[in-house]
Amino acid sequence: MNYAMMIKEYREKTLISQQDLADLLGVAFVSVNRWENGHYEPTYKAKRKLRELFIKAGMKSEDYTDESGAMDVKDCKINNRRYLGNKYKLLSFIKDTVNEHCENVNSIADIFSGTGSVSSAFWNLQIITNDILYSNYISNVAWFSPETVDKTKLKRIIAGYNNYSKVENNYMTKNFSDTYFSKEDCSKIGYIREDIEKNYKKKIVNERERAVLITSLLYAMDHIAKTCGHYDAFIRNATFNEHLELCYPDVPNDNNQNNRCFNMDSNELVRNITADLVYIDPPYNSRQYCDAYHLLENVARWNKPEVEGVARKMDRKSLKSKYCTNSASKAFEDLIEHIHARYILLSYNNMAKKGNDRSNAKISDEDIMQILEAKGQVMVFSKDYKAFTTGQSDIEGNEERLFLCICRGDENND
Ligand SMILES: C[S@@+](CC[C@H](N)C(=O)[O-])C[C@H]1O[C@@H](n2cnc3c(N)ncnc32)[C@H](O)[C@@H]1O
Asked: Does 133 lie in the same domain as 13?
């Protein structure tokens, strides 16, 4: 529905000013002005009220045939979330490197896949994704699994979630009220996550549809959480001025039938898969992803564990990555040795000793080169890139590097 046109038509028909309409909706004049000019879309709540007003005024629109509100559910894309070290801005660099230097690549394994952004640059190929975090695995299933999803059904379910306003006591309100989210939003998150599981058990949604709904919830949480993008801490005494609104992850229905998503340690996985190109983007410093994203992981898993400390973290022992520790080089050596591929592409930036201790890279350039050269011929490509540190400082001379290894055709790589 074109809300800009409909608002104008409504005001002309009912002879009211933008200020009158703003009062009716309980919003500021400037909001109505921006909606009518087409600069912004009304919020989900405002759209619901507007539709009621349009209907009362006898205005006709074919969109009204869907009472569920599904038409108001916005679509979202794979990169509509915050994630430390995501490579979305480097996709053309990565793609160009592959196109210029690799031949006959029909399958790619993105074995530290995170958000899946790098896989999304290779949508036309067979894709294997893997991440140690279940929350990332779930998003990867949503975006890359070959199973078919029913978009209309999912949009209706999401519209129902967006409309839900009852406040209840549940796992989320008990443990997270007024921390990262308001009590009301915690209640809604808990209700929605429980309902997704019920719908899956009743076979109302299939496995990928379940993943799409959980992904939709995780993206919505990420959008409003009172954090600086990760969950090591929440912003104290924050005003919760934005409320949970789920979008529809606009997932394709024509993914390659051989795509596979895994949720395991990459060192174990590589022993059992083959791909033309294996892309490696491990954590490069001591920041553990399970610490930064414990809350999204908790909601994705939904085992409702005990949480502790100010940041309300669950037990994360089994999710810790060796790549954030002093045994990173050893883990990397083992990984490379057991990869079955013609090409290996590694992202690793050059923070070796430039940031503070926590942001220093765990694997030295010497180790990287020595380990990769034992596997094949190595080329290095680089691009300037702003570093993220918790202190928000820019670090001089920081660059993202891609190490391309053309693997020797020994028995491991066949
Ligand atoms: C730098 S991020 C990847 C970002 C990703 N390329 C993107 O664009 O979103 C590193 C990822 O590796 C995952 N990870 C860390 N150790 C792992 C391991 N041993 N096996 C599998 N995944 C691991 C983390 O959970 C994190 O999502």
From this structure: no
- Which atom of ligand 1 is closest in space to residue 115's alpha carbon? 9
Q: Looking at the domain assignment, is residue 181 inside a domain?
A: no
Instruction: Please tell me the residue having the least CA distance from ligand 1 atom 8.
Output: 86
Beta strands in 64-203 (DSSP E): 75-76, 107-110, 126-130
Tokens matching residue 154: 């999912």
Residue-number span of the structural domain to which 21 is assigned: 3-65
Is residue 275 located within the same domain as residue 401? yes
Mutate to test the pocket of ligand 1, among 89, 321, 349 (most ligand atoms within 8 A of CB): 321
Backbone φ and ψ for 349, nearest 5 degrees, come out as: -90, 180
> pLDDT per residue over 311-337, tens digit each?
999 999 999 999 999 999 999 999 999
Residues 10 and 141 in one domain: no
Interval between CA 166 and ligand 1 midpoint (Å) = 37
> Is it the case that residue 237 has pLDDT exceeding 50?
yes
Average pLDDT, integer, range 281-290: 95
- The domain that contains 47 carries what CATH number? 1.10.260.40
Q: What H or E segment, with its residue span, contains residue 22? A: helix 18-25
264 and 342 in a single domain? The answer is: yes
pLDDT band at 385 (very low <50, low <70, confident <90, very high): low
Which residue lies with its CA nearest to atom 13 of ligand 1?
A: 112
**Ligand 1 atom 27: the closest Cα is on which residue?**
114
Residue 372 falls inside a structural domain: yes
> 193 Cβ partners below 8 Å, 6+ apart?
172, 214, 217, 299, 302
Confidence of residue 238 (pLDDT cuts 50, 70, 90): confident
Examine residue 214 and state whether it is found in any structural domain, yes or no. Answer: no
Residue 387 has pLDDT above 50, yes or no: no
pLDDT at 69 over 50: yes
Instruction: Read off the pTM.
Output: 0.85
Question: How far, in Å, from the CA of 368 to the mean position of ligand 1?
Answer: 18
Pick the atom of ligand 1 nearest to 131's CA: 22
Q: Is residue 366 part of a domain?
A: yes
Nearest CA, atom 3, ligand 1: 114
Q: How far apart are CA 62 and CA 60, in angstroms?
A: 7
